[in-house]
Each structure stands twice: as structure tokens, then as C-alpha cells.
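Final report, closing paragraph on structural work. Over the funding period we assembled a curated collection of sequence-structure pairs, and we close with a single example.
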Amino acid sequence: MIKRRNSKVITIGNVKIGGDNPVSVQSMCNTDTRNVESTLSQINEMADRGCEIVRLAVLNKDAASAIKDIVKKSPLPLVADIHFDYRLAIQCIENGINALRLNPGNIGKRENVEKVVKLAKQNQVPIRIGVNAGSLEKSLELKDIPLSEKMVESAMGHIKILEDLDFDLIKVSLKSSNVLTTIEAYRDISQKIPYPLHLGVTEAGTMRGGLIKSAVGLGTLLAEGIGDTIRVSLTENPVEEVSAGFDILKSLALRTGGVNFVSCPTCGRTQIDLISLAKKVEEKFKYIKEPITIATMGCAVNGPGEAKHADFGIAGGIGEGYIFKKGEIIARVPEDELLEKLEEIIIKSIK
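Its predicted structure, as stored:
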């Protein structure tokens, strides 16, 4: 079992973050926040997939105004992403936003920071300090130290601004597109601050490359007990980020729920179109919320035994397949009826 880093607990909407609370999965809408209808549609789609926190880009006053209507109908807590303009942060807090993502050192004069922090404190709105390796302060860029240390130094500077104003509803992220830099930065800061950490490898890439980078970066840190919320950044529909996030957490036994799919690699013993079948199984049963394991195996000789840890599974044959439960074959079914029969058996068992 992974021993989690003990961090301060903060609350975003109805989601508790830090301490021994579950690592939560979040994503970010790619809609125009000013379009309330399309933004809510995407939020609901992510909620259906299990997302727990959603971030929204707030680029201007119209977007900040739209927050009011979005918050009223959103099933999930919302974080406003603010850059440079403190007035947008104030407007979002007044409109009911659940949290902010901003760097206090980047929103102007001290008096402007004080205005935002005072209102955030009054409304119990946490602030995520989001350091990105690609947009560090110029003074840090000139320093002859590793990039990960520059990121940590940047974060510590922003944290101090909030602490000096007696504000501690803080979450921190230090994202780089380089996996090793990301890992080093989080390891470093995890020893220096008590606040919860939001993990992410930024600009990770498209589905394949982005998943690999995120799984390695986030997985390494999570296995060390570091991380309280995560986002898998993909150049893809944000819904896919949510599924990937939960898959990473489930692989480390940090979250349960939903189907754990397993399938064997193809080999010379395979007597069925295993690649196609495995994809169909994963697609067909992704709606199930119960924590079960479903296996898709290539041959009837070794398949059931090799996947006896699975709750249910299919083992392929010539023109047919075998459905098994906990390693025991319970049905022999024609190939074109496999999925329907498997679904029938699973639904009866989990009701």
C-alpha cells in the first residue's frame, strides 16, 4: 500500500483535497467559457465519466460574467483560470467560483493582490499556484540552476505572498513538458511545504505520447505518495483525460470503481481476432461503475487460468469463445454472441 504524503486539507466545492482524502481527478474545458450552454454540456459529459473538478479559462469580463450561470447549473466544482488581471479573479469570486488558479506575483500591485486574497478568504475560495516551466519570471530564467529548482523557487515566492497575507487555502502545481523535470520539481517542493499538490505533465502531447508521459510522470510521483489531485493533459477531448486519470490511479490502487480491463498480448496460440475483441469489450463495458475486472484472453487452453484473478472474462476459440468467472469456464458461446452473453452474465452478477 502506498503511504501518502500528509498535506493540509482544503475543500473545493464538495471535494476535500489533501490529507488522506482520495486523489481526485480533474480536467479543463476546451469550450469558450462565454458559451454557457456548450461549457455546461462538456462539464456534464466529464461528470458522467467521473471527473471531480473542472477548470475553466477566464480570458475576459464576459467569460467571468458567464461563470455565474455556469456555477448555478454545474454538477462539479469549478476552478477559474486567471492570468494577470486581478479584476477577473474578483469577478469570478463574486460570481460563485469554487477556486482560483492564479499566481499572485503576476497580477500586479500589492494592493491588487490584497483585494483578491481578502475576498478569497472571506468566501473560503482556495487558490492554486500554478507554476509552468515555460513561463517563469525573467529573473529566474537567468539563474544558473536546474530548471526544476527554478520552478520550486518560483512557487515558493508566490506562496510567500499568500502566507504574508495570512492565507493558507493553497494548492500548488509545478508542470513541465519534460517528465524528469516535473518529477524533480514535485519531489523537491513536497519536502518544503504542507500544502496539497496538483500533478500534471503539461503539454504532454496527443493520446499515445501524452498518456505515456503522464503515466510515467504522475505514476512515479503517486507511487512515492506525492500528489493530491491530477490532470492528464492531452491534445484530445477532455473526457479522455478523465478516463486516463482514473486508469493511472486504479493501477496504483489509489482509486477503485469502474471496470479494470485486462487482455493478453497476441501470440501464435490465438484463435480469435483478439485485438478487435478486446477493443469491443473495453468499449461495451465502460459504463459499469462497479469495481470489477474483465479479461479478454486469446486462447481457451491457458486463458481462463492465466486470468483467474479476473471477475469475468472471455477466452477465444475457433469461431467461438468461452466465458469464465474467477478462472472457471461457465459458458461456451458462438463468437458473434460473446459480448451479449458476457453482458447478461455480468449484469446478473452485479445487481
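Residues 147-164 form the longest helix (18 residues). The mean pLDDT is 91. We thank the funder for supporting this effort.
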